[in-house]
Each structure stands twice: as structure tokens, then as C-alpha cells.
Task: structure prediction
Amino acid sequence: MTWELHLLLLLGLGLRSQEALPPPCERSTAMESSCTKFRWPSSTKMTSSLWICHWPHLQMKSCRSSVSWPQSTTTASPRNSFRNLSRVTSSPWGRSCSPGPLRTGRTALSSCRRSRMLICVSGRRSYTRSGKSWERRDSYWVMEGLLLSEMASTVKGMLQNFLDLVKTYGHIPNGGRIYYLQRSQPPLLTLMMDRYVAHTKDVAFLQENIGTLASELDFWTVNRTVSVVSGGQSYVLNRYYVPYGGPRPESYRKDAELANSVPEGDRETLWAELKAGAESGWDFSSRWLVGGPDPDLLSSIRTSKMVPADLNAFLCQAEELMSNFYSRLGNNTEATKYRNLRAQRLAAMEAVLWDEQKGAWFDYDLEKGKKNLEFYPSNLTPLWAGCFSDPSVADKALKYLEDSKILTYQYGIPTSLRNTGQQWDFPNAWAPLQDLVIRGLAKSASPRTQEVAFQLAQNWIKTNFKVYSQKSAMFEKYDISNGGHPGGGGEYEVQEGFGWTNGLALMLLDRYGDQLTSGTQLASLGPHCLVAALLLSLLLQ
Result:
């Protein structure tokens, strides 16, 4: 056993001051066993192609055998087919046991999950950033781009992987490691299935897996519900909640150091709240920093004490889709069940989360018994998800954006108006949050509201193109404070790639392609950008 592992184990023993919560792992992982050292092949290079695809062979045990990567990774343009990709891989079973920092030869310290289909990951370092080998929330926007790129077979393979996870564990874990099993991710699997079926008309695949979709929603009902009283009536909504102690294994040292800033008796709760924040996908944000005297400190995180507007909108949308699915399959009993569930959630969201005066939905603070009225694009997720009863809400949402001065930002919609140093706060802007607002506003029948939706799309495409012309890469997030740059903050370096950014760019080009402009003259670009500029120009024509 290496000295690093000895140190981790000693730290774990020293930090486990109480047993108020279950441990972070329910079974042994490779952190407790030997694991073969291996290097990322120096000859393997991932280009800036739109999609980076892998054949992962992830195991549910320690990575004991030697790992060979050289031909198991390939890049694919949108027009490459699934069949063509399978021919260029070295075997139908590559390996992806998360090698750690590039070319360091560092031991892989985690257990892995088998996957039997080709998948597309979000960016170049998705396997190395924190051991995550899938991202369900990322994958939704990736799938939208793949479907526009005529790669439906790849989307089906990704869906099958997620469905297999639900069949095995009852939910989709937060990532491809055993210690992620206690956390899920924002529930977008039903929406993914809807987009795939709408594109392919593959009703047989839906019929085969409808029960698995229902099982995933059951996970949220059984494990993540909370009762909220408003106006003398009790409502049931959902929250992110991970009642397991110990530091996050993927960020062990950071969590251990952070715990030193709080009383010993509060450390297990802090670690559980950090895991809930990771489950939300907003890791981390001022949305969750509501529990301490200094709201800018990560130690004030209280994710599970908030009822998120976006989470409940995702579930409301999923319940409507499940009702539609069952109606299509001729099961009226289940269709009625999910129709009623959606109606109940819609009533709860209007009573607890909606603010008529502001014209938006807001996260509800369970401890303070009131809404958090700070601006976040997630406040408009119910509009994007179609979870509302008043058709005028899109125009009310526009007024909310105007009152919050969000439309004054020319390079994208900020993630918040608070600069805490966390990545899900100002000045960062993220592709999926742009989509929530743009497609939400586009639901309006008002020409003015639709024009604002287009202008927001134009702003985002210009930012993408400007940064690409400078860096020859797309990024997971962008700093919109001063002309548009790759984003920053948080726990890791900004990632190139990047799946959901690429996916949204294609969605906006598909929707507004006859109106969008790059905002840059070709003559002003360096030689390395001319090909990209010409390609974008062709797409925009």
C-alpha cells in the first residue's frame, strides 16, 4: 500500500468524530485494495471535434488488470455514424477506469462501472476531473445535439446505459464510481427518452423500458420528498438530500479542510450538505449558501434545506411525459396516475414557489419558511418545462428579467448576481441555463418576448464564437463580465469540449439559423480559425 493511501486512511479515521450519518461508501472500493498503475498514452490526443466518444468497459471491482487505451478512444464529427465509430475502435470493449492526471502514471483509486454501449462524454477530461464517467444532466443537451447530427443510435446507446443503471441501483448515480451510489442527478431521463422517441418513432424501445422510467421517478418519491405547509395546506415537493456522512471521496482533502472551519459536531452535516449540492449539479452556488453568518462561505451550505424550483419543474415535466407515454401505449390507468401527480405538483409549485408579483418561481427555504428571492436562471425552469397553467407567465417572466436587469448582460445570462468565487455564480454563464430562459421565453405568443428570446440566443452564439476564435475550443462555462472568456471558479479548472455547450449551439443554430450572425468578420480571424468560421457561416446561411 502506498504512503498516499496510508495517509488517506489515517485522515479518514481521524475525521470520523461521530457516527450520526452512514459512511460515504457502503462497500469496499479500490481505495482499499491494490490497483494497477497505468499511464495515459502520450500518443492519444483528443481533438476539438464536436463530440468525443468512448467505448467504456467499466468494472464493478478493482482495476487489477493492465489497462490499454491507445485505440479505444476516437473522435467523431456529427456526421459520423455509430456503425462507423464501432469500426475504428480497437475492440467492442474499451477501458475507462479514470486514469487520473494525464501521463502521471498515478494509481486509479476508485471502483468502476461496466457500460455496454458507446457513450459521448462532455469534454476532454470528463474521465479525470472527479472520476465521473457520465453526467445525466450534461447528457440531455449532448443528446439534443447528437439527434440534430443524425446520431440517434449513439443516443439510444447512452439511454440504454442509463436505463441499465436504474435497473441495477434504482436510480442513476452521480457518477461512475461506487461512492457516487448515494447521490443521484437532476431527473432528466424521461425527457431524454421523449426526445429520442420523438426523433426515431422507436415506440418499441419505449414499451420495453417504460417500467424502468417509472422506477427512477419512484426513487425521487421515496427518497427525496419533503412536506411544506403554505396557506394552511400541506404540499409535497422534492429536494436534493444525501444523508450520508464523511467527506466526498473525490474531494476528500478539500472537504476535510473545510470541516476544520466548523464545530466538530457540525462536520457530518456539512459533508452531507456538500454531497447534496453535488447531487443538484450546482456544485457549488450561493443558492445553497444560506445557513451561516457569512453567505459567501462554502461552510454555510444547506442544500437539503431548500426546495428547488428547477428540480420540481423537472419532475413535473417527467410526470406529464409519463402520462403521455402510457396513453400512447394504451395504459389509461397509469396515464391517469401520472396526470394526477402532475396536477398535484403543479398546485404545490404555484402555492409554494410561484411569486405573482415578481413573475417567477423561487427556491423555498425550509428553515426560514420563505422564498429565496435572489436571481438564478433556474427560477424560470418551470416555464421551460411547461409546468404552468397561466399562458401569460412567459410575458411575466420577461418583466422579471427586465426588473432584475438581466437583459443588460450582452454575453450571456449570468448564473447569479452574487460573486462568491463558486462556479455556479457570477460571472459565469452556462449553456443549459441559457436554454432554460431562451426556450422558456420562446413559448410566448408575444412577438416582443420571442424577439428577446432570439436576442439572448444571439448573444450566446456570439460569445461561443468569439471564444472559439481565440482558443480553438468550446468550454463548459463562460465568464461574461468583460467581453466573454472561458469561465472559472469552483473546484477545478474550466473544461474544454464541451458536450452541453456544443449541443445548445446546434439547437440554437437549428432554431434561429436563418437569423443568427457570428458578430465577427472573417478577415479579422487568425488562420487557425478560418475553417471554423467558414463552417459556422455555412451553417448560418
Q: What stands out?
A: The chain is about 40% helix and 10% strand. The two ends are 60 Å apart (CA to CA). The first strand starts at residue 51 and ends at 54. The CA atoms of residues 17 and 289 lie 24 Å apart.
